[in-house]
Amino acid sequence: MKIVLCDTAFNIKIEAPREPPLGLSSIASFLRLNGYIVKVLSPYLEGWHISETARKINKLNPDIIGFSIIDKNAVDAIKLIKKLRRIGYKGYIVLGGYWPSLNSYDILKTFKEVDACIRGEGEFTLLELAESLNSQKNFKDILGLSFRDGSNIIENENRPLIENLDKLPFPARDYTAQVIKMGSAPAIYTGKGCHGSCSFCSIKAFYKEIPGEKIRTRTHKNIIDEMESLVRNFSLPHFTIIDDNFIFPGKKGIEFVESFRKEILNRRLKLSFDLMCRVDLIEREIFSKLKSVGLKRVFIGVESGHENGLKRFNKKITVAKSIEAINTLQNLELEFTVALILSDPWTNYEEFETNLKFMRKIRDSFDRNKLILSVSPRIVVHKYTAIYEKLKEEGKLLGDWFKGYTYEINNDIKLPLKIWELFTQRWPKFFRSLVLKLQNS
Questions:
Q1: 295 lies in the same domain as 210
Q2: Exposed/middle/buried for 97, CB within 10 Å: 0-12, 13-18, 19+?
Q3: Three-state secondary-structure class, residue 61
Q4: Mean pLDDT for the stretch of residues 71-83
Q5: Residues 379, 351 contacting (CB under 8 angstroms)
Q6: What is the rounded average pLDDT for all residues in the chain?
Q7: Looking at the structure, do residues 368 and 224 belong to the same domain, yes or no?
Q8: 423/60: higher pLDDT
Q9: Which of 64, 78, 213, 308 yields a CA-CA distance of 20 to 30 A from 432?
Q10: What is the per-residue DSSP string for 116-147?
Q11: Domain-located, residue 166
Q12: Does any domain span residue 203?
């Protein structure tokens, strides 16, 4: 049995190339371990458009195609699937990822070209699906699977989350050499889940109905084993740790960092890495230890330069705490990326202006050689998040489950936000040069 696993990112300007999602790569590795022939495809890295991708997949003629889909790729993914069916693909099509997990019933009801959706983590579910297709067994006992049975849509019980992440093989690295050649670093994960409860984050929605421990970590030994294998196989000892939050609060977090650090030192590994962390977990002692074993850059979700925004986002931090965290990183001579969201459904002009002033303060107060400002003009609404539920309750939710959800911007910030989006998205180089000229005049 041949299986193709395909990312569904298209038409993305490649400035910082990335590998296929690690969830997809983990499933590929798991299926290969169990004897299946698996081809991983990234149209994004291959430079393929939708029609070309359909032709390439159809030529491979796999028995199963698994597509990894997030919200912003949904429309293109369905176009690809429809194209595949039109040119004659007769095999089994199954979808996985955040978007299918939260919209499985609607997808199967609306798009007859799709045979099934996997909800939650997909390694064991796709393996059992492949085995059932191979032996023509019934699908009704496959946990985490939604599928079409004649005219009926069956949604099986949720599959519990994987308890021991160390039991999974390392993710497949089919595109790692290419990504390195293009100037990016391999991504790794050290755990799954996040202890935060940000009102806009889709992680809580994704895990909400699934039984099992929501926050799980790999052992430090397992993580360093993978890092060491990547250093050995690809000769580039720099990594991006993609966990939403690398450090956990309290004693557990301190013990994990110490074990992680000691394991690197004991093996005498020369490597470097970037990570993401919450503002309120940035402490000098911990980050000094991480720097000693290779930490280079820290991504922090500051999100707002005013207290009202932080409360609406349920960040449980203050603006002062954000500045303190950035100061700590700069004093340690670490590089840092500060993420900000300019507006949300309730932002007024005063708050919008405060965010712009805050951005300028960050730019002027910290080392520009180490600082990157990552600015989103407006918050993205994901299904079943706290912001989604509030907009729905207030009758302000626009859009739909397929094309994405949105909302009306407050009238007093419509024009400045439109100008910001127009310049930063359509003419980013011109915008940056203009801002620098104005600010330095």
A1: yes
A2: buried
A3: coil
A4: 96
A5: no
A6: 92
A7: yes
A8: 60
A9: 308
A10: EEE-S--HHHHHHHHHHHHHT--STT-TTEEE
A11: no
A12: yes
The rounded distance, in Å, linking the Cα atoms of 441 and 437 is: 6
User: What element of type H or E holds 2?
Assistant: strand 2-7
Last residue of a domain, which of 136, 155, 174?
155
DSSP state of 167: G
Residue 168, domain member (yes or no) = no
d(CA 134, CA 399): 40
**pTM for this model (two decimals):** 0.92
Domain that residue 189 falls in:
185-440
Report whether pLDDT(15) > 80.
Answer: no
- Residue 203 region, left (φ>0) first, then alpha (ψ -120 to 50), else beta? alpha
Same domain as 241, residue 119: no
Q: What's the full length of the chain, in residues?
A: 441
Query: Which tokens sit at 297?
Result: 């850059």
Pairing of strands 64-68, 92-96: parallel
Percentage of the chain beyond pLDDT 90 is: 78
Where is the domain boundary, 140, 155, 170? 155
Strands 335-341 and 295-303: parallel
Residue 360: give its domain's CATH number.
Answer: 3.20.20.70
Flag whether pLDDT at 435 surpasses 50.
no
pLDDT at 285 over 70: yes
Q: Is the pLDDT at 55 greater than 70, yes or no?
A: yes
> Residue 381 gets which letter from DSSP?
B
Strand-pair partners of 91: none
In a domain, 436, yes or no: yes
How many separate domains does the chain show?
Answer: 2
Helix and strand numbers (H, E) in the chain are 17, 17
With 60 as the cut, is the pLDDT of residue 254 above it? yes
**pLDDT value for 434:** 45
